[in-house]
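Figure 2 data, in text form.
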Amino acid sequence: MLDDNGNDQSEGSTMSGVSDLSRNQRQQYIILQLLNEVKDFSSLNELTLFIKALEDTFVIDENLTLNKAVNLLWSFRGVDLDSIKQHSLPVENYELTDGRQVLIMTENFSEFAASVGILDN
């Protein structure tokens, strides 16, 4: 939990094996599964009703309305999910002197992006 200044006010301790990186991987998995299921909806209205039923379960970016999110999801119906490439940045865990944990890239981003084909060399 963050205070008004963005400072961590949570009282819990860190959980072994749980990090921002693992959370991102779980979120990517859920998104890909959702994209896989969207083709089973027969209409945009049917998908909208389904998403509205789940509205309180997921947090969507504050700048992305529910209708925009549904339309974006609908637009992916014809995408071959096997053609989606997933990349994980090369990072390592690092603990700051105040105990906060952060991820630090172990490779130059431009070099990494070029090596996985995101950027041209």
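Caption note: The helical segments are 20-38, 44-53, 66-75, 109-115.
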